[in-house]
Amino acid sequence: MVAAIEDQRIQLADLSFDPYISEEEISQRVAEMGQEINGWDLGPKPLLISVLNGSFIFAADLMRQLDFTAEIAFIQLNSYDGTRSKGEIVMEGAQLGVPVRNRDIIIIEDIVDSGLTMFYLVQELKKRLPASIRIVTLLHKPEMQEFPVTVDQIGFSIPSDFVVGYGLDYRGLGRNLKGLYKLAGQDLPA
Ligand code: IMP
Question: pTM (2 decimals)?
């Protein structure tokens, strides 16, 4: 039913996006991820670190699936400009403001693309001597990964399409979409 798909196509600024992963599929997968994390061997009061801006919705949903006492802190990192990585990380938010030493850390990321953001954050956190660092991401683009980071849990592995929704944006837009949408079938803009 091409017409039905066309009906749901959305426009954000100059680009069109088509439905990709539904709200129901996301919530089912997030519940599974939470159950799996509940089985991990973690010390007392692990620290979740949500990477802003993109992971705020995923982090809120995932944290509510956890059945152990955990803290959450937020860090703002930015490497993207429109649909492309700028190739460097800008730390925009305040420092974490919570102790990291000897704690099990679970980084909550929206999407691992080149891996630069996670590579940078893991290096920074290691300086603070945590007991362990795990990376949980809703989305992973394995074909795009260039930096050596180990991702411990992946919601969905996807091709290199640019996606928006469920916290992810294009030029600040689309974060409030309940499902995920991918760039409609044209090449990325130069
Ligand atoms: P990396 O540092 O190249 O792994 O990129 C990770 C960051 O780039 C994510 O936290 C997102 O903010 C952004 N990003 C990468 N791919 C996409 C996408 O398809 N849509 C929206 N943001 C993306």
Answer: 0.90
Is residue 58 one of the residues assigned to a domain?
yes
CB contact burial 15-46 (16+ within 10 A = b; e otherwise): bebebbbeeeebeeebeebbeebeeeebeeeb
CATH classification at residue 29: 3.40.50.2020
pLDDT value, residue 94: 46
| Residue to mutate (ligand 1; options 17, 49, 79, 122; most atoms within 8 A of CB) | 79
Angstrom distance (rounded) from CA 168 to CA 147: 21
Q: Would 24 be classed as within a structural domain? A: yes
The β-bridge relationship of strands 47-52 and 104-112 is parallel
